[in-house]
């Protein structure tokens, strides 16, 4: 049946290869189903089954034909495009700054446009089940475009228009469709994906190798860092290191620091231990200053004794910069006092040293030294010769791979990465050459022989062992064969990279060309070149002497015609040696010249990343961070500005205001000018200084504090406040970042700070799915009491009040969660933790909303307006938390499980202990969150009133007190006064029956617990209230009304009832309560803080 389709597999393959119908399709005389009748059997019980089987068999044959596969593979590779869509997990985890964000949605990205490790990142994201990758051709074709199937089916069709031909053409088209879409395309997709992944992995490996090459391809450190193109001596100095003094320390200032003196051969000469290196030179403590000065004198004597040419400092923390300044200052003093040559101070990356200090290799080489001293030794050796220090990591493969080469390094095959690293060492070592005798003398240099061409670790170790057994020194290259019995092929491979320097012990056997890159099999050519370059009247008899002369005066070689010499060698059968001859001339001019670049000090960005631990992946433009406000930046006014200043006076207060610092407490204009002249004016505030968690300093200018204009940042920000900000600039030189706190930029609705998207990013599909997700959330929100909101703030959670309380259960006192409100989309609720199992819910009203999901432009709590949630945290929640903490930590606070009955029980117990005194205690109220119970027992019955905490202080009986001390003082003077609101007997039931209002101006409806703000006034029964009123009306001097200014006479107050505790006698009196030092949230609210200080001052005056 398959033969009835008109072309064999081979014929169709030739048509496809040539892209024209070389073989014409033969047409069967009957229709497909009719022709299939004769093939009906048990396996194929119907004509349709026969036709289907024939289609499948022919498609299989076509898909397996080599010519077809080769042709289709070429087209597929050329036209294949990548489609990427996120998984359910990816939609949740891939945000704007995720590594997969640029390709979260991709549409029709040609594979030829892939670059670098891009596809490796895609495959890694797919492996993490974040995205799905599809490689195909003819997917999502534009209107009118032809697919590859449409193009090639003409090569299988018969070009006729009869019904019979059209029926067979349909069958032929289905055969090609099966062959391509069901057999070839899936196979080629896997094949291409594997090919792209391998190419991307190879690129990543090459990037890792390039980074290692940049580390090791550096000349040995030279103090003068100058390189002169010239003679033999300069070339020799390239391979000579200078003595280095290194310094290592820890962040603990109490721990000792170590200095290691390393000679030019990398050997330990001496070390120094200083205990006070990290102490400040200008410390306020005299003993610290003297200890620091003593250590610096010891260091100066150590430097003077050993004369290092450079000092290497471990670059690990910010302390490295201050240590570098101290050492540089000491060296400058020495240079001036002793006329010493210049000693350079360098910061050195300590990553290799951290591996060496605790490695078996380090412990074996210096078993008696502490790890920090071994760390210093490695620092010095890396500065002297990075190649040797890095190569020693290859003794254990895991050590080398502990270094950080690439952000995707952990996903690379370890064997391939190790092989790539080995290739880089082989290239650099053979480019530089190995001084075999130095490697024999110093063990830390022996590792270089492992990378010589033709040797490897096993042969290199055998070679070193053989040389040690035969005198311990190699005098010339020929001894590799005669003494070490090296095989000819191994000798030919490695001889040109082994460098043998002259010495007194081998002058008679030394071959000068053994110190060059010239291979021994071509020694006759440089000798002939040396003889030919000599003067006719002064031709040396010995060719070796001619070589030595020409190496001292290489300019004579420029007159040689090397092209003619190359032609002569070619005529003698040596082949084309033109390039070799020019290389020989260069080697005679500069023996084993080191082509590596000289040492380069750390750049600003490198220093920033080493000392802070931040990289471009961890700290970048647009990153959201939290920082701590540490102070304000001021711009001092110039003399001209001061002379032309125009202070203004407030007509209401008659106080003068400074036009620069805006201080408005001057009684007279002369005070303002005195303010200018004595330099007490700090100038105009230009921004806020902050500190990030990693210690980096930040700066927020006035224009970046708020979307609204800010002229006085101290009114919006308090020192010690935690701010949410976004990075807008990184200053590597000053170790500083510029930040913004604008609500609009924190939300970043326009995607200004998002990672740049791929050129083929499918924004249409991304917006479509985003809209679908929003619609889904809306549908879910209708099923719940709360409307889920889209608010970009770390404290916001789309949770109910019960879930919020569960989350706060593990948080600290004062933490809060912002959540949707059951009142509707124009309200939010702030739930904050007063104490364990006690939470307050504060209603926030929103105005100026763009939509139901966004946050309002202005937020209101009661009658107070706030710009954003950060301002609510700073000006409302933080002061509340601080005041609550102040009561909880007060010495007269008692735990009562938040119940009034428990507090009354405590009061009665204390009363029984001292019946003649009046006990009083604070306790937290669980019934009315946000209020604290103030219980006292003047007679036989305990009384409990409520103290409400507010951002401004403590509200008690309608008065707001800035401190607890002021509250207690007023309470003890007026506790017998009628409680405001306690009047007729009928009012008692009414007040008990009502629920106090919330802090937000009303009760929270729905499932949210009530938040009280009014103080219950039903603390006295009717008879006691009437008795107190009658006593006052009849002039009872023991009762003083709240508005009375008269005090108590000493005779009214028995002195025996007073003490330094929370008891007092019949008449209230201020106890000797020590002044509380407030911290925490008090620093966020300037107004409250000022009132607090003023009230303290008045209290001290009265006392």
From TrEMBL:
Histone H3-H4 chaperone that plays a role in maintenance of chromatin structure during RNA polymerase II transcription elongation. Residues 687-742 form the S1 motif domain. Its main location: nucleus. This is S1 motif domain-containing protein. CDD domains: S1_like, SH2_Cterm_SPT6_like, SH2_Nterm_SPT6_like. Residues 979-1021, 1040-1103 are annotated as: Disordered. Belongs to the SPT6 family. InterPro entries: HHH_9, NA-bd_OB-fold, RNaseH-like_sf, RuvA_2-like, S1_domain, SH2, SH2_dom_sf, Spt6_death-like. One of its GO terms (biological process) is nucleosome organization. PANTHER family: TRANSCRIPTION ELONGATION FACTOR SPT6. One of its GO terms (molecular function) is nucleosome binding.
């Amino acid at each position: 049946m398959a033969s009835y389709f008109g072309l064999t597999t081979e014929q169709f393959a030739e048509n496809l290869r040539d892209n024209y119908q070389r073989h014409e399709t033969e047409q069967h005389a009957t229709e497909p189903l009719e022709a299939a009748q004769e093939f009906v059997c048990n396996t194929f019980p119907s004509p349709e089954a026969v036709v289907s089987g024939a289609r499948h068999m022919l498609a299989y044959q076509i898909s397996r034909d080599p010519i077809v596969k080769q042709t289709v593979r070429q087209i597929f590779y050329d036209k294949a495009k990548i489609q990427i869509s996120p998984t359910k997990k990816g939609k949740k985890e891939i945000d704007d700054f995720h590594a997969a964000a640029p390709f979260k949605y991709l549409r029709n990205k040609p594979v030829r446009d892939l670059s670098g490790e891009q596809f490796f990142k895609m495959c890694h994201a797919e492996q993490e089940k974040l995205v799905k990758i599809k490689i195909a051709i003819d997917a999502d074709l534009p209107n009118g475009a032809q697919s590859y199937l449409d193009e090639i089916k003409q090569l299988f069709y018969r070009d006729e228009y009869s019904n019979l031909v059209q029926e067979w053409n349909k069958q032929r088209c289905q055969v090609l469709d099966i062959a391509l879409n069901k057999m070839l395309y899936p196979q080629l997709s896997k094949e291409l994906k594997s090919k792209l992944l391998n190419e991307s992995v190879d690129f990543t490996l090459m990037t890792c190798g390039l980074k290692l090459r940049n580390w090791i391809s550096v000349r040995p450190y030279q103090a003068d860092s100058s390189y002169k193109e010239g003679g033999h001596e300069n070339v020799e100095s390239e391979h000579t290191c200078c003595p280095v003094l290194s310094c290592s320390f820890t962040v603990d200032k109490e721990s000792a620091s170590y200095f290691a003196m390393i000679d030019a051969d990398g050997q330990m000469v001496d070390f120094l231990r200083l205990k006070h290196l990290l102490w400040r030179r200008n410390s306020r403590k005299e003993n610290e200053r003297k200890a620091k000065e003593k250590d610096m004198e010891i260091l100066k004597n150590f430097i003077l004794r050993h004369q290092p040419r450079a000092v290497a400092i471990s670059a690990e923390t910010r302390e490295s910069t201050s240590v570098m300044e101290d050492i540089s200052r000491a060296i400058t003093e020495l240079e001036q006092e002793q006329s010493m040559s210049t000693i350079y101070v360098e910061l050195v990356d300590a990553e290799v040293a951290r591996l060496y200090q605790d490695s078996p290799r380090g412990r074996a080489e210096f078993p008696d030294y502490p790890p920090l001293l071994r760390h210093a030794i490695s620092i010095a050796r890396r500065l002297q010769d990075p190649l040797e220090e890095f190569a020693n990591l290859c003794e254990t493969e895991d050590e080398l791979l502990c270094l950080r080469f690439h952000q995707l390094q952990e996903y690379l095959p370890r064997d391939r990465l190790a092989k790539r690293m080995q290739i880089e060492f082989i290239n650099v070592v053979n480019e530089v050459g190995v001084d075999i005798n130095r490697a024999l003398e110093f063990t830390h240099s022996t590792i270089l022989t492992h990378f010589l061409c033709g040797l490897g670790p096993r042969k290199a170790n055998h070679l070193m062992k053989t040389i040690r057994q035969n005198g311990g020194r190699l005098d010339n290259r020929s001894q590799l064969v005669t003494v070490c019995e090296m095989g000819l092929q191994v000798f030919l491979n490695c001889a040109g990279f082994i460098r043998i320097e002259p010495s007194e012990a081998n002058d008679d056997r030394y071959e000068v060309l053994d110190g060059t890159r010239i291979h021994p099999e071509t020694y006759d050519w440089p000798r002939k070149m040396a003889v030919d370059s000599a003067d006719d009247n002064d031709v040396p008899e010995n060719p070796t002497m001619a070589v030595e002369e020409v190496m001292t005066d290489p300019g004579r070689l420029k007159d040689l015609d090397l092209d003619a010499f190359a032609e002569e060698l070619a005529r003698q059968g040596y082949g084309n040696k033109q390039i070799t001859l020019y290389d020989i001339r260069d080697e005679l001019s500069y023996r084993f010249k080191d082509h590596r670049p000289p040492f380069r000090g750390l750049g600003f960005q490198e220093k920033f990343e080493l000392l802070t631990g931040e990289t471009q992946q961890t700290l970048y433009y647009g990153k959201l961070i939290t920082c701590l406000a540490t102070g304000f930046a001021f711009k001092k006014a110039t003399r001209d500005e001061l002379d032309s200043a125009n202070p203004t006076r407030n007509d209401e207060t008659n106080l003068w205001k400074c036009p620069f610092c805006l201080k408005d407490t001057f009684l007279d204009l002369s005070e303002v000018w005195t303010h200018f002249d004595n330099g007490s004016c700090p100038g105009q505030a230009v921004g806020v200084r902050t500190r990030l968690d990693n210690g980096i300093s930040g700066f927020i200018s006035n224009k970046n504090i708020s979307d609204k204009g800010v002229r006085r940042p101290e009114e919006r920000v308090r020192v010690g406040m935690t701010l949410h900000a976004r990075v807008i600039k990184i200053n590597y030189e000053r170790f500083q970042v510029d930040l913004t706190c604008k609500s609009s930029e924190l939300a970043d609705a326009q995607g200004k700070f998002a990672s740049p998207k791929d050129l083929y990013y499918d924004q249409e599909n991304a917006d479509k799915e985003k809209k679908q997700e929003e619609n889904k959330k809306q549908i879910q929100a209708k099923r719940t009491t709360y409307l889920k909101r889209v608010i970009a703030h770390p404290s916001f959670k789309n949770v109910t009040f019960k879930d919020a309380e569960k989350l706060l259960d593990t948080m600290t006192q004062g933490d809060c969660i912002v959540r949707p409100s059951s009142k509707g989309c124009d309200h939010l609720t702030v739930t904050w933790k007063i104490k364990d199992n006690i939470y307050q819910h504060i209603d926030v009203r929103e105005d100026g909303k763009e939509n139901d999901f966004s946050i309002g432009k202005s937020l209101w709590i009661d009658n107070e307006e706030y710009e954003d949630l950060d301002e609510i945290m700073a000006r409302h929640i933080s002061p509340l938390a601080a005041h609550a903490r102040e009561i909880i930590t007060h010495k007269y606070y008692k735990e009562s499980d938040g119940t009034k009955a428990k507090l009354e029980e405590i009061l009665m117990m204390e009363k029984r202990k001292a019946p003649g005194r009046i006990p009083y205690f604070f306790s937290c109220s669980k019934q009315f969150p946000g209020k604290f119970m103030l219980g006292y027992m003047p007679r036989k019955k305990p009384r409990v009133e409520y103290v409400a905490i507010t951002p401004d202080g403590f509200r008690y009986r309608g008065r707001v007190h800035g401190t607890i001390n002021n509250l207690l003082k007023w309470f003890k003077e007026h506790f017998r006064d009628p409680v405001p609101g306690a009047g007729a007997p009928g009012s008692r039931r009414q007040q008990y029956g009502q629920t106090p209002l919330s802090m937000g101006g009303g009760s929270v409806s729905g499932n949210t617990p009530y938040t009280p703000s009014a103080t219950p006034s039903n603390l006295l029964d009717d008879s006691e209230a009437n008795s107190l009123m009658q006593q006052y009306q009849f002039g009872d001097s023991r009762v003083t009304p709240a508005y009375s200014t008269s005090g108590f006479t000493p005779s009214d107050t028995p002195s025996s009832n007073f003490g330094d505790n929370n008891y007092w006698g019949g008449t209230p009196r201020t106890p000797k309560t020590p002044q509380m030092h407030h911290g925490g949230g008090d620093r966020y609210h300037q107004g409250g803080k000022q009132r607090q200080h003023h009230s303290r001052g008045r209290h001290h005056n009265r006392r």
